[in-house]
Automatic annotation (TrEMBL):
Keywords associated with the record: Dioxygenase, DNA damage, DNA repair, Iron, Magnesium, Metal-binding, Oxidoreductase
Transmembrane segment boundaries: none
Lineage: Bacteria, Pseudomonadati, Bacteroidota, Flavobacteriia, Flavobacteriales
Pfam families attached to this UniProt entry: 2OG-FeII_Oxy_2
Protein name per the record: Alpha-ketoglutarate-dependent dioxygenase AlkB
């Protein structure tokens, strides 16, 4: 059953909802440990100023089918769901009342790894994409920055929590996961997405 949405955390020009913890501590630990072992983690390749860079952070991409998705100017082919991911997707779909056909995963080994300012506005996601972000492992700071006013909205992403970004969030706001030297523990992030235009090989 779908729960009521919390208030929008953005003051304007987008809709983003922080649901807090949707997993209890033992579920969160079970998902973290299983995903750490069972996901096909790979160092990410991204294009920066026309050069191919291999990131410290590891990523993986799963979906309903082996469709292709362009992310950071690199095209990747999805792996098929594993049971833990299907279980987490079900939970996220119950809480949000939305449907997702793919998931991009990030593994940050410590606070030395983060994600710089970007928006997830790839054409494959459509005009007002819903992106459901689940956090496992160590708590990290997450920041939104308005594209024109530069207004910032900060939050802490707790272990087992869910953040839903939708409406015009990607159009009008950037987001980042700042690095922090103090943080020594790993974090896994899952962003459930809905790819509209499937490119199937
Ligand atoms: O790790 C996070 O919380 C953010 C991940 C993210 O923004 C992305 O994968 O596009
Ligand atoms: Fe993102």
């Amino acid at each position: 059953m779908q729960t009521a949405y919390p208030p929008n955390i953005l003051p304007s020009d987008g809709k983003s909802y922080y649901f807090g913890k949707i997993l209890n501590e033992s579920e969160e630990q079970r998902f973290f440990n299983n995903l750490l072992d069972e996901v096909a983690w790979q160092h990410d390749e991204v294009m920066i100023f026309g050069k191919k860079i291999v990131t410290a952070r590891k990523t993986a991409w799963y979906g309903d089918r082996e469709f292709e998705y362009t992310y950071s100017k690199m095209t990747k082919k999805a792996k098929l769901w594993i049971p833990e991911l299907l279980e987490l997707r079900k939970r996220v779909e119950e809480v949000t009342g939305l449907e997702f056909n793919s998931c991009l995963l990030n593994l940050y080994h410590s606070g030395e790894e983060g994600m710089s300012w970007h928006s997830d506005a790839e054409a494959e996601l459509g005009k007002q994409p819903a992106i459901a972000s689940v956090s496992l492992g160590v708590e990290r700071r997450f920041v939104f920055k308005h594209k024109t006013s530069a207004e910032k909205i900060e939050l802490q992403l707790e272990p087992g929590s869910l953040l839903l970004m939708t409406g015009d969030t990607q159009k009008n706001w950037l987001h980042s996961l700042p690095k922090s030297k103090r943080i020594k523990e790993p974090r896994i992030n899952l962003t459930f997405r809905n790819i509209k235009r499937l490119k199937i090989r």
